[in-house]
Each structure stands twice: as structure tokens, then as C-alpha cells.
Protein 1
Amino acid sequence: MNRRECLSLGLIAVSAFGCRPIRRQYPSTVFSAAKDADGYAIYGLYSETLAFRFKLSCEQRMHGFARRPQSDDVVCFARRPGEMAVVFDGESGSQRNLIESASNRLFYGHGAYSADGRYLYASENAYQTGHGVIGIYDADAGYSRVGEFESGGIGPHEIILSADGRQLVVANGGVRTHPSSGRKKLNLQTMESNITWIDLSTEVPVRTERLPGDHRQLSIRHIDINRYGSLVFACQYYGDDGGTPQLFGREQNSGGLELTPLELSALSRLGNYCGSVVALNEEIAVTSPRGNHFAWTKSNRTQVALTRIGEVCGLFSTADHLIVSDGRGYVRRISRNHPSQFRQRKYDQVLWDNHLG
């Protein structure tokens, strides 16, 4: 039985039992990459109290996380240069495996597991040609790389499972980079981002959506799906025209992407840059480390509550709270029903990185 046949059987089983195979709903531990006095690391914090649980030292700057279903495996991907991914025990913090990037491939910082936890998918840069690929790793075989398929665009960043677990949803940011050029963006005049849905049984795109209107230099970087299966997205603007485009939105019920229309007074506080996004029931929460604000849309979808937090970026949802981290060592647990009520903890000499997981 080949990989696709095995995956198809797994998807049938998931559908038969009606599971929602996106991630554990409300874990007791939240993870963040960080830089501290000793170098780069992964921290585990208790999600209820934000107290320290464990620390795992790393050789490179780490980025996004993926939790393996029905397992304590958690993977964190490096970003810039993206040469490794660390698999660790989410309970103890001990390292279980180290995945090295394949030849002529670099990790883009994010990944997702198949619904049954057998395969790990990683967004990757095929930098010799500039196109995006999704690397496939067999978690049951020591995370050996067993294949890849096209991401449906350039610069794939965050990837997640669809609500039914049958498709991989890819935010193709549209930006081409090469390790020899550092962080330089090589195609700003021609870039075009999209969100692509890929059938995991065939590894072929089944749908691609682009932003409405002329938003060529608006890069879709991060995505999330709420409990109803509705997708939200957040962008970063790379134009040099002094513009202030809308930065986040959702997939419409009829298909297509819709940007949330904020008033300029609110939009200008986001600094043309969203770092993380979370889909709530009908609302969207985003962070802006460049604008130094945490934003949360209200139920009418066009008004937004803004909270000033310096260098805020990490964002994670629990049953009743949002956990927010920043580059100054603070982590906050904010009530979803009463946003003015929150608990915070300061970690000295710790700079939290972009994402919580």
C-alpha cells in the first residue's frame, strides 16, 4: 500500500467517526520559541497560569509549531535560515528527533500533521527555482522525508488542515527569497499571493483563491480555521507607495476572500503588518509587532478593539481566553468574554518569538 492509499484510508476513518482533526482543542501547555541569555530555545508554559514548565535549547531561531494528533509529539520549525525542525515531547520538553532540511530546500517556519498523525507536512522553499513545495515526513519512520508536492504558489508560509482533515490549506505569501540574498525579497514587482486548498489523497490543488482587487504586494502569511470550518487570514504589505491597505479578513460563505474594512484610524495602528491571526466564533484576532497593537474585531466585523502592546506577535486561543506574547518578555492571558480582564507574567531576559503553539 503506497502513501496516498494509506492516507485515503485514514481520511475515510476520520470522516466515519466525525472527528474534527485540526488540533487538540485546549491543551494545558502552550509553547513559544524565544531568545534568552543562553541563546535560542523553545519554552513550555502552563496555559492556565503562564508559569514556566520547561525549556529546550536550540541551535537556530525557531518559529511555528504543530501538534501531532493522539501523541505528545510537537514539532517546531526553524525560520531564517530554516535548516532544521525539532520534534519534542510536549509534556517533558525533551527532544525526540531532529529533522534537517533536504538538499536545495529550506523550511519556511510552519507545518501541519495529517488527521491521523502519520504524516507531517512542512512549507518549504525550493530556492533554486523559487517555487513553493510541501515536504512530507513520515512520523512513524523517524520523520524521514518521503516526498513533496507543489504548494500552489511562491513562498508558502502557514499551512493548516481543513476542518474535515481531507485538504491542506496553504497560505502562499508570494514572496521569493534565496539564502544567498538574506532577507531580501526578490520579486516585489511581480509577487502574487494566494490561498490554495490541496487534496491530500491526490496531492493536487483543488481550489485557489486570491485577494480581490489590485493587492499584488499584499502577502497572505497566516491563516486559521474556527470551529465551524470558516477560514480567516492575515497579511503583510510590502508596497513602497505609502499605501495603507486592509490587512486581514475571511473566506466568504460563497467562496472568495473578503478583507475586513477597518477605518483608517484603526488600520494605521497595525503598521501594514500582521504577525499572527486566530479565528474565534465570528470574530478575528490579529497581532501587529510593527504597529505594536493587538486587534480584535467585534461581532459586526467592521469595528475593532485595539490594545497597545509593544512588539506583540504570539497569539493562541484556549476555551475562554487568548494568550498573547511579545518581544519584551511579557505573556498575557486575556478573557475572551471580558477583554479588559487579563493575567500577565514577565520573563526577564526572554524575547518571545513570533508564534505560540
Protein 2
Amino acid sequence: MPVVTLPTRLLAMRSRKRTRGFSLVELLVTLSIFAIVLAMAVPSFQSFLLKNQARGIASDLSRSLWQARNQALALGRAVTVCARAEDGGCLASQDWTRGWLVYRGPATTAPAADTLIAEVSREAGALTLTVTAQTLSFSGAGTVSQADRGTVNFVVHCTQVPETLFNAISVARNGRISSQQDRGQGCD
């Protein structure tokens, strides 16, 4: 019996058609694995973003507090840090989430354009910044002016879960600024 062979060119075309692209089953398996890996990674990534945002808030606040203390020492007079109101003045609140002001003068005076040292504003989000005082004033000696208050604590925590602490900054009566970081596990 004679063996019939196809021309080489026809065989090459046939084999290329078989290996081109993915089958539907291969595509579905790959997409399923990708979806599972993505579902496991998203919560971790959200927690990572929140921790970085909390570090940023704490870093900005710590920088502002150091700046206020250094300005008080340099000027030899009171410098105050307070919660930022929408109109650019001080907000009588212990929620500093929307930002804060640093200005020359005691806490009993309102900040004016010529006394403003720094202004930090931010949008409200998943994190909240609360303080144990509405204002914090450093005297010309660099100590906390409101001596009856003791230590003033600034706490960055989740808006939905207030007991979840991310960062904390403390200012002692003597003006010493210290911080604790990364105790938060997430806002779940």
C-alpha cells in the first residue's frame, strides 16, 4: 500500500493553526487564579495604604509641633498650634482631621495673616486625628504654656474603628515631643 504524504507546506500550516492562541479553558483557569490572588492582595494593600497615610499625618504633625517649639524658642514668645477651620481660623474642636495652623501668639488670640507660620490642610478620609486639647501653645522657653493640662496627646486612628490606633504623638509639659507608631492592624 502506498503511503500518501502531505506536502511539507500543508503540514506546517496545520501545526501552526493548532498552536496559535489559548484555549478557552486555559484562559478561564488563568483568570480564576488571577482573581484569587487579587482577592487575597487587596485587603493587605489597603492596610498598607492606611498605615502610610497615618505615618504621613503623624510626620506632618510632628514637623509642625517641632517648628512651633523652635519658633517659640527663637522668638522668645508664645507660638500656638490649633485645629484648622474652613475659614482659615482656629476651630474650637479636638478633631484635627482637616488640618492645623501654627501661628505666633498665645492660644487666646486668633491667628492673623501676619502671624501665621504654617498651615497644613488635608481632606477627611478613613483616618481621624484627635487631640486631648483644642490648642497647644509653646511658651518662649519652649515649654507647654497650658501647664495645667499635663501631656497633650495626638492620636491618628480609623474613623470607623476609633480604638484602632495607628500613630500617637505626645507633648509633655516641658515641651518634649515623642511618638509611637504602627500599632494599627487595619480598619476592619
Protein 3
Amino acid sequence: MTHSHSNHLAKEKSPYLLQHAYNPVDWFPWGKEAFQKAKKENKPIFLSIGYSTCHWCHVMERESFENHDVANVLNEHFVSIKVDREERPDIDKIYMTAVQLLGQGGGWPLSVWLTPDLKPFFGGTYFPPTNRHGRIGFIELLNKLNTVWQQEHDNVFQSAQEIANHLKRYAASGETSVDSINDQPLKLTVDQFRFSYDVCYGGFGSAPKFPRPVTLHFLARYAKHYQNEEAKAMLFHTLTMMAKGGIYDQIGGGFSRYSVDEKWLVPHFEKMLYDNAQLINSYLDAYQLTEDPQLKNFLLLSCTTRLIIYLAICLHLKELFIRPRMPTVKVVKVHFMYGHPHKFAKCWMKKRQN
């Protein structure tokens, strides 16, 4: 396929940015060139943040960023910047927090409008090209934001400054001294998880449901440190329901990124390395916590070892599991060769304990 036009992303190295290099939208990478253009032309910045395996990022590209009508509005009234969140997580963190403070939830694609001095004044996530299911269409939104920018310029800057001040206070609130640290935040965190916990199907929140391995790691450590049975129950039930559900590929192995329903039944067909790698530790944490032999067997054989096989074989990451410092390296290789990954899982677990 040949392209007659490319934008300022054509020389970038990020695969995600290169996917947008031939959009009719005149994309810029994050940098001085875009900032100077916005200041010189007194235009607001449209910042779009996503990543290469994001489903809705691709949907919005197909519906809007490849649409010449949308591109004409963006190119005339805005300076458009594309950011790969996996390349610049620092930028993503700042503007995701801003959108969440605006009460717009969060997620990707992240869509944020900034003043030329990079202060956000409006944001959201995915927008359909036209009004749909109660959501404003992207073209209509762009025209309204342009009207506000032209007619209420001072108010926009005032709002942007207020949001920037909120961000500064939010960042400052996370700065604590060592002397002020106690276990109260941990207990409050468990209370929040308890509030959102699904007692029927496990997991947290409603559909779509994500595995959330970091939450599971926290519960495992909290349960062990405080001997908390409630945290154990949430951990065991969630991991069991996930492993028995459709979010787990019962044939090919590996967990999908999330389930579109609350029962873990219907997966979003996208398997992420970082989810599956972390979930190995989640299942090993649970294995070490439980005294139930049947559950131990399920967690180790049906879950942990199958995840290791999936990562090692299907994702071609076998060598990542052969640690140079790990004792009995030859034995570990033999376990893989002759179908005993559960013995390797135990080796891994002993290594983590050390």
C-alpha cells in the first residue's frame, strides 16, 4: 500500500506512533516543534495518548483519525500531538490524572485538550465520530471547543490554571515523611477493595473486569502480614473464578486482558505479557498462603505451571525462566524438556522466598 501523505510521526521509532504516520491528521510527536506552533498560532493542543494493542485506540483511529472531515477540523483549529503511553508513561500519568480529576473516568485512548503552555482544560477518552448512544460526536465536540476557545479565551485559561493547581495539590498530597507512615492507609485500601469486591464471581467492580494483579499482590501480602482471613478469601475466590472462566484460555493457555462481563466468561481477545507474567506470582502467592491441599494442587498445577508453559512456549520466553543464579539450572531445563513445569514452579517459588 502506498501513501501520498505523511505527517510528523513518520520519523518516530514507536510502532504505535508509526501506525498514525499516514493519517490525514497532521500529527506531531510530543516536543518543542508542536509547542512552538501552538504558541505562535494561538491554538489549543489536542493530545491523544494510546498504545499499539489498545482496541479502542484503533477504533478511534479508524473512525476519526482516518476521516478527512475530522482531520480538516483538527488541522485548522488545533495542534494535534500523538503520544505512546508505553514510550512516555510520565506524560500519560500527568494527563490521565487530570482527566480523572475532571470526573471523566480514565482509560485509552486518552483525549485531552491543552492550552499552548500544556495546561489541560478539557478531556475524556474515546469519542465516536458522530453523536451516538448519548455520547457527543467528535466533530461536534471539536467545533464546540473551538468556539469556546475563540469566544471565552480568558475563561479557558483560568480553568486550565485551576486544573493545574489541583494537579499540584494532588501531587503534593502524596509526599509524606517516614515518621508519618502507619498501617492506616493499608486498612483503608482493604476497605475500598471490600466495597468493590464481587462476592459471587470474585474480582473487583463491574464489567468489564480486569485481572488486576497488583491488587492481588497487595491482598496476598496484607493477608500474610496481618493474618487477615477476609483478604485471603477475596484472593482465593478471585483467582479460582478467573482460572475457571473464559478470560483464561482453557486450550491455549494464558489470560486475556479483561472479561467483557462480570462472570469472567467472555474475554476481550488480547493477551498481555505483563498481565500473565504478574499473574504467575499472584497464583504462587496464593499457593503459599493456603493450607487446603486441593486448592494448593489447583493453584500450582492447573494455574501456575500452565501460565509458565504459555509464556515459555507460546510467547517464546523460555530463556527468561532460566535464571543464571538459580540453583539446579540443569534440572530446571530437564523439567521443561520432560514435562515437569510444576517442579520448575517450585524452584521459582523457592528463589522468590530467598
Protein 4
Amino acid sequence: MIIKPHVTHPLEYSLMPDDQLFFLHIPKTAGTTLAGIMENVFNREEIMPYYFTPELIGQDLKTIGSYRYFRGHFPHNLMQAILPRRVVTITMLRKPVERFLSHVDQIKRGDNSAAAIEYLRGLSLEEMVTNDKASPLLQNFHVRMLAGDISLQAENGIVTHLKSHLTIQSEADGLLTAQANLAAYSFVGLTERFQESLFLLTYVFNWRPILDYPSLNVAEKRTQADGLDWRLLARIQALNQQDEEIYNQGAALFDVRYQQMTYELLEQYGTRAHARQKLPLAPEVMFDLLERRYEVWYRRTRTFVNNPDLSMNEGIQGAGWHPVLG
């Protein structure tokens, strides 16, 4: 017997023509993989080509506001400030200690040339954690991306100054703001449950489900938490205490939404054979149910044509496609 989860609102959200979808990519949360998958949903001209905050300087705000899909290392408050229409936000979270260590590994590899990152690159992990100048640049990154301050200036519609400070007025206010923002997001996924996150994402937006996916930007060598001195590990945990609260909130939200999706799929598309399945459903079973649902939705909402005309700039949903060109 499957018990219906207690939820307060429907999971599904059909993107309207005027909606602007923003994937807030918190560094080292498998966001590069997810961003690549989502690019197959949109046509090339609908996707803002910039991924980092400095790239927006010198750009026309009207042009930025004309896109439909935005993905990148942009904090919540930045997109809320510059996008003119309804912003539908999604994000991925990762266990804070693992995310912190992965971020440090990325910095040490030299994947970013920003001045602050150059400073950190010359430090050891122990120095990054204990140095009062260095540790604030890395701690509680979830909270700072979800609630951090920005400064923006524009002349004649052109961005002349833009700075993501990723600072908050007070720790308590920052955490509360981050929690409120996260609760309002249409989708929150978890790096540790990436396949399940993909299932939930495609369910929410009525996209074709994906079972196999290419993993992008994955480091070969990673610093493992269980190999650290306990005092160093305790310090990292203390630096990311607020992120731990955000992650726990996101994980609880994910569990409820995933259970709701499972219940609805079994109720509407399940067969007698599914009644014998144990929860959580195996990926192949979940994929089959999502495929059934997608086919029903697609036939109900789309008009079929005998001679489709596709260009290489158009997004095509599903797995295995080459990314759109442009």
C-alpha cells in the first residue's frame, strides 16, 4: 500500500511563453551536467549565452531580458534584479562538506582566474580553512548564492558595473532569506541523487524523461572528507553550518516532492505489476512510468506534422543528442 504524501500545491508547472527559467548553478553541485541536459529543451536563440557575472558587464539589459533560459553562476538576487518577466527558478544542492572540498579542488586545479581565486590558489586546504581572509570566500556558499548582495549600475540600458558580493547583512537574515527563496523554487535537486533529480525535474516541467546522461566537468581526483584530520573536518563543518541547514531543508523538500511524484505516477499510469513494486521504485520502472505520462501529455498538447523542419539550433528533448549548435 502506498500512502499519499501530504503536499500543499501541485508539482507540475507548465512554462508560459513569457516565463523566464533560471537555473541557479551553485558551484560544484553537478550543475554543468544539468545545464547541458536542459539546453536540449530550448532553441539556441532562447538561451542566454553568458555563464558568469563579469560577462554581463557591457551587455544590453533589454537583450538580456529577451532570453527565456538562463543558467550560470549568478546569485538569486542578480537575476531577480535584471530579468523583466516572471522568473521561474530551479537549483541543485550538495552536501556542504563535499561541495566545499570539491570547490577547493577546482580552485587548486586553476579552473578560474578571478583575483580572489588566484589568492586562494596559493594556499593549502588548512590555510583556506583557518585564514580569516580566505575562509569567508568559500564558506556557506549555498546561502550566499541564494541570498547574497549584489551591486548593479547601468547607463542607457547598458550594464556598466556589476558585482556579486555574495555577502549578507547578517548571518541570521541571510539564512532566513535563503530558506524563503529555496522554498519558492519550482525545483530543487540533490547532487547525491542526480538521477532521481532528473526524474523529478522532467516531471515538474512535462519534459521527456532521461535515464542515461553524460557527466560533465567531473574531476578525476577528489579530496575525500573521510581522509581529513578530524580537527580540520570539524572546522570545515563549522564554516558551513548554515549550508547544512539549507541542504537539510532542500533534502526534505526533495523527499516530499519525489514521493508525491511517485504516488501520482502509480495512481495514474501504474498497472497491476506495479502494485508489487517496492519503494523507492527502480530507475527503469520510474522511467517507464514517466515515459507513459509524457506520451499522454505530448499527444494532448502538440500538433503533429508530416514533414517536420528542424534546424541545428533547435533543442530536441531526450538523451543522446548532440548539444545545440550556435
